[in-house]
């Protein structure tokens, strides 16, 4: 299996594709205006505590307060709180020290029956666990960790963990021995998958770098006033290299000299022997076209995903969940219908797993498979899904297929999916996917004019609407808008407004230019 990482960088964005034998298996997009936030550590201030939903909202300086569920407050929180110097909670001056040098008071997070006692205005050290989605703020945790290439440092912890993806017993035992020999007191350590086959010195150097980062953060937290960013994790591109540049990756190709140098500088520190696998792409053709990544991305954004058998998937995003419908297409026959359906469902199961990973879809997913009569066949589809999801880096839970052919899946959501990241709401349909017919829309305008006339409203108004709607109003030997003027005895000035959708309009008073659209309907 030939595995490669292809990186395309431009002024507007950086795109990272991971391909295996020419097939796209992972895709990431990094925007300058929307940097990756997962892993960032903040000194925040408690804004609200809501015991009813077992959560608190923490001000970390963003538009929306961060969401901290009580289950995300770990056992180490009290120890972490002890490093915070909070002048607002300091004792008053007792005369022993000059007023200009108040001594900070160390905080302890009080726990009552295992439930944290948070107070409004209290300072707290938190880390972003999930990026904002739609109008929701970030989700945070008070269990601080700092990720490196080979290990993850856990301040004030005592445990040692080994990645579950390292399955070899001897290698797990060796790495655990290495971790015990290098871990400093009062720290915990998790050995990452990429540490497989690495020597003790490489893991130890990574640990020392992380320990230095934490010590710098400890000093910074005593000087800062919340809300404050204390530690910023690596950006999307470098974090992909850190997490996914493993021994099975043959090459990394980069088409930007600047990014090429940044990645080489990073690798030269953490694993210099791998520098020869990083290559600058110098051809004039687009790097994504040369590696046939672009065509995969075009398919990636489609609502319809074809299957090799002739069937297809339909992927729909809703507010609460993602719904996937499996269709047999032309791959159907009267004979052996159950077998045909099973083959399509098994292929769909593999493609569903691939699409969820590629599109980075998280949350609740419901898949409507083709109905199967036999329980053993339903179990085959369920087993196929579980097998495919073992390769997924995100946490995935799958329920068995119901009698209706539905499979419910939950997948860990850390950031916006690709669909949300690179698309925006259509200004014409406002995300509905449909717009009102022109005749119905013109009826709405006339209904407004009728109510305005019967209520003794404005006699001179300005009608703002989409340019395409304005074309409809200006059609005919006698224009539709002219007919409306005479019918409702109202002077109407028609104005194009591209910011309005095709089924939106505004009426403004020509006296003072105020919006009167809702006055008639209230």
Helices and strands, with pairings:
Blueprint: E1 3-9, E2 14-20, E3 23-30, E4 41-50, E5 55-59, E6 66-69, H1 77-81, E7 85-86, E8 105-106, E9 111-112, E10 115-116, E11 123-130, E12 139-141, E13 146-147, E14 151-155, E15 160-162, H2 169-182, E16 187-191, H3 200-221, E17 228-231, H4 236-244, E18 249-254, H5 257-270, E19 278-280, H6 287-290, H7 293-300, E20 304-306, E21 312-317, E22 322-327, H8 337-359, E23 363-368, H9 375-389, E24 396-398, E25 406-411, H10 418-422, H11 438-454, E26 460-465, H12 467-473, H13 480-487, E27 491-496, E28 505-509
Parallel strand pairs: 1-18, 15-16, 18-19, 22-23, 26-27
Antiparallel strand pairs: 1-2, 2-3, 4-5, 4-11, 4-17, 5-6, 7-8, 9-10, 11-12, 13-14, 14-16, 20-21, 21-22, 23-25, 24-25, 26-28
Helix pairs in contact: 2-3, 8-9
Give an overview of the whole structure.
- The chain is of the alpha+beta class.
- The protein folds into 4 domains: 3-36 and 234-294, Nucleotidyltransferase, domain 5 (2-Layer Sandwich); 41-92 and 103-231, no CATH class; 301-422, Aminopeptidase (3-Layer(aba) Sandwich); 438-509.
- The strands form 7 sheets. Strands 4, 5, 6, 11, 12 and 17 form a 6-stranded antiparallel beta sheet that branches.
- A hairpin with a 7-residue loop joins strand 24 (396-398) and strand 25 (406-411).
- It is globular and about 90 Å long.
- It starts with a strand and ends in a 13-residue tail after the last strand.
Total count of strands: 28
Can you count the helices?
13
- Shape summary: globular
Span between termini: 66 Å
The profile of the biggest β sheet is: 6 strands, antiparallel
**Share in β-strands:** 25-35%
C-alpha-based Rg, rounded: 29 Å
Oligomer: single chain
* Number of structural units classed as domains: 4
Q: Helix fraction?
A: 25-40%
Unreliable stretches (pLDDT < 50, length at least 5) are: 86-107
- Mean of all residue-level pLDDT scores: 84
**Protein structure class:** alpha+beta
